[in-house]
Design a protein that fits this description.
seven-stranded mixed sheet, 1 helix, mainly beta
Amino acid sequence: VQLVESGGGLVQPGGSLRLSCAASGFTLHYYIIGWFRQAPGKEREGVSCISRSDGSTYYSDSVKGRFTISRDNAQNTVYLQMNSLKVEDTAVYYCAADGPFSTAQVMRVMRTCSYRDFGSWGQGTQVTVSS
């Protein structure tokens, strides 16, 4: 399992970025994919998760309405569109995957999108929001 993030960078407050997570070594179809971020001195935070099996998505309260997660199964890639970026969105962003999950497990994982439920991680991409 390999996950490679791209698309990070420096952007002004109010700007947009789109992160990509390219997966190889497994098929996204049966996995949950999550985007997480970690700022210096802070715990890793679940930003958004997406489940193929039931089409459900999760967004943390801090990004709801601004970020959108999507997946292209043909490209085996998951995206995170980030709009109206704020200074507090500055962090290293990671994508992670795990599965396959049973229906009950999907419901549990998607309820919280916790980094503790994910075993395969990308290397991370830096997002800096600054004027």
